[in-house]
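Hi support team,

I'm filing this because I wasn't sure whether my run with magnesium ion finished correctly. The job status page said complete, but I'd like someone to confirm that the output block is well-formed before I use it downstream. Pasting the exact inputs I used:
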Amino acid sequence: MIDQYGWSERLQRQFEPYAADGLLPGRVIVQQRGLYRLATPLGEVSAELSGRFLHAAAPGEHPVAGDWTACLPRPGEARADIRAVLPREGLFQRKDPLGGVQAVAAHVDVALLVASLNADLNLRRLERYLALAWQSGAQPAVVLTKADLCPNVEDLVLAVESTAVGAEVFAVSALEGEGLDAVRALLPPGRTGVLLGSSGVGKSTLVNALLGEARMATREIREDDARGRHTTTHRELVLLPGGGLLLDTPGMRELGLWDADEGVSAIFADVEALAGQCRFSDCSHEREPGCAVRAALERGALDEGRWRSYVKLQRELAWLDRRDDPLARQEQRRIWTHRTKAFRAHLKQRDRDR
Ligand SMILES: Nc1nc2c(ncn2[C@@H]2O[C@H](COP(=O)(O)OP(=O)(O)OP(=O)(O)O)[C@@H](O)[C@H]2O)c(=O)[nH]1
Ligand SMILES: [Mg+2]
Ligand SMILES: [Zn+2]
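And here is everything the job wrote out:
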């Protein structure tokens, strides 16, 4: 049972101390607030964090979808208590607004960045998803959905290919079953993919098409362009008929800041208002006279940590912007190509180790 969920000899070795304590391995297939559903050698069970774990673990260490845990089944009940989380690989993280990181999914091999060929394709947003994917250590691939609604699929695929350096690009129509085999091929038995992309691009529809049944809830057709509504509200790992595993996630907000510049301004509106009051419009907020930011920091009106987060984030965004500059882009391309090669080599090595 857990072999199907990607259990490996390496995980088995890491699990030995827990096995000696009578614990069972369980992979998190659904995570909804403090409640979990685990795939274990005894089948699927509901689970909670044990008191001891809650006490000892930092929030960032709480299990997320895809995690492997050590759990203790409650006798006579289809329930278990989670006692520990195994070391993570392919950890998908997002930035939280204050510069920290939050785990989204663990043990991810392939990150499927999903965008619709129907709506305006936002290449910059795609780049951000890509940056996030590269940070996770998972191999990114771009899936362009709703090909049936697009008259110039080839052109768009080419445009995306030139942006998404190092990632394969696929066009699919879940509705007509086009291009699904290429996606299936990314997820051979035991390999885990995560779907990432804005709300409404068709992530859950794609899962259903790959499953061959309507298991995930999808948006009504006539609501296609409804704004701000998320059909999927939790993360769920499903076992595909071909043996691969795919994690469906809620759209857009899932990635927080990486989605849009507006996000930064909204979260740091007070900081930006302060910066607007400096005497010099190009104030670096370091030692210029009449700097409203330094004054507020000295008065204690602006929190030092918050300011640092803001500066860090600006740097991050500048880094993303630099990639619109041809020379910087060339340099990035070199780095990314190198990373792709390194990553492929890493995967090969890992498969050999398994
Ligand atoms: N024509 C066409 N419509 C599609 C295709 N795939 C998805 N759709 C439609 O797009 C809408 C949104 O699909 P969902 O699968 O719910 O989107 P989602 O990405 O899971 O959205 P969230 O769960 O909110 O993040 C639905 O009305 C689907 O029927 C496709 O290949 N072709
Ligand atoms: Mg969905
Ligand atoms: Zn200033």
